Amino acid sequence: MLTTFDTLKFADEEIAALKKENRFIQPRVLQSAQAPVSVIDGKEVVNLTSNNYLALADNQKVKKAAIDAIKKYGVGSAAVRTIIGTMSLHKELEEKFAAFKHAEASILFQSGFTSNVAVCQSLMSSEQDLLISDELNHASIIDGARLAKAPRKIYRHKDIKHLTEVLESPEARKARRKMIVTDGVFSMDGDIADLDQVVEVAHRYGAFVMVDDAHASGVIGKEGRGTVSHFGLDGKVEIQIGTLSKAFAAVGGYAATTRSLRDYLGSVARPFLFSSSQPPSVAATCIAVLDILLTEPKYLKKLWDNTAFFKEELKKAGFDTGESVTPITPVMVGDMDKAKALSARLFEEGVFALPLGFPTVPKGKERLRTIVTAGHTLKDLKFAVEKFRKTGRELGII
Ligand SMILES: *Cc1c(COP(=O)(O)O)cnc(C)c1O
Predict the structure, then answer these.
(1) In whole angstroms, what is the distance from residue 198 CA to residue 184 CA?
(2) Catalytic-labelled residue, pool 106, 187, 245, 324
(3) Which secondary structure element, helix H or strand E, spans residue 185, and what is its range?
(4) What Rg, from alpha-carbon coordinates, does the chain have?
(5) Are 129 and 268 in contact (CB under 8 A)?
(6) 60-295 is classed in which CATH architecture?
């Protein structure tokens, strides 16, 4: 029986308002595995929109690890970690992940989102603390900061001078704890935080650093170890956070840190205490990806070869691809209607690249965001560039 509720009529009004602002979202549907060439809404397209950096989401070895784990351990843990949801695979992944990050210990969460919430809320637990955040940090850091008791101060994107001013402010000087939070790789622009400088000023002013490596783990640094490795800062960054849903191709998040901070989070972090643990097959997937990163450098190499080729070709075609130095390549359009039109025309031509507008990116910075993967062939990328050139000209973008 279909029911309408007068009491929920507001949803229609809200949707109408969103539509007016070009903010109503109706996602396309993936009907195949997440792959370099995927079936989306019934059409085979070159997929430039996933975070499947290493193209391991449909990898035989990784799938076998997940299937074996299901056979041995079943499909779910049916408990939170602190009840009886800590399985041997979670312990194994935490230990291997800590070693990968050159940290003493690590703790798993259900997602990158909950990792940020868990750490910000747990460590910034008093009004006397201060959370200091880059203005372009991910939404989950902003939400984590909202759940923290500490006040927050925002510094201008990658502006170390402004960060220093914040650290010199009276609020910072009298704070009990100061935590500086930054994305490692910024998800919309593909630029990298100047983590070496952030760490230097942090320690000069007695603050500690949390870096969110969602788009950096499995992507930058030696063997994909992330931003800390990229800058040679091993042993100097207090907390490394990230997701297991991008290059790691599964779902989940982590914080790699000291043993005592890990154990503290395991006793107080609300997502750890009140939301069930990853299914064993997911932990097994991540262990298999870690193993691939350490033993098969070809995936990372291909990712970066593809990145260089695709950026170069888009630039040659006349597109503005922003400041990115990572596989995230924005194609700037500057207007949401136009960005949507470009995405729709590309899709008709067999290429999927998602348009992004306000509030995900600032007004005037509307764009298509593309991410190449290790699984794209040169032929896929040449095809995509040719279609970008064709549709970009049609719409007067180049
Ligand atoms: C994607 C992303 C997250 C969220 O990770 P999930 O595992 O998808 O919840 C957090 N932080 C940053 C910077 C991200 O890009």
Answers:
(1) 11
(2) 187
(3) none
(4) 22
(5) no
(6) 3-Layer(aba) Sandwich (3.40)
Could you tell me where the DSSP H helices lie in 23-138? 60-73, 88-100, 112-123
* pLDDT tens, position by position, 108-123: 999 999 999 999 999 9
Q: Which atom of ligand 1 is nearest to the CA of 113?
A: 9
Amino acid at 80: V
Which protein residue's CA is at the shortest distance from atom 5 of ligand 1?
A: 112
Q: What is the pTM of this model?
A: 0.96
Of 7, 52, 19, 78, nearest in space to 285 by CA:
52
Cα dihedral across residues 249, 253, 258, 260: positive or negative: negative
Q: How far, in Å, from the CA of 116 to the mean position of ligand 1?
A: 9
| Residue 135 confidence (pLDDT) above 80 | yes
Domain residue spans of the chain: 27-58+297-394, 60-295
Task: Measure CA 1 to chain center.
Answer: 40
Residue holding tokens 């899709």? 347
pLDDT number for residue 360: 86
Please work out whether the CB of residue 215 comes within 6 Å of at least one atom of ligand 1: yes
Task: Report whether pLDDT(1) > 80.
Answer: no
Q: For the segment 341-367, what is each residue's pLDDT rounded down to a tens digit?
A: 999 999 999 999 999 998 888 899 999
E strand or H helix at 33:
none
Residue range 27-58+297-394, CATH number: 3.90.1150.10
Whole-angstrom distance, CA of residue 355 vs CA of residue 336: 8
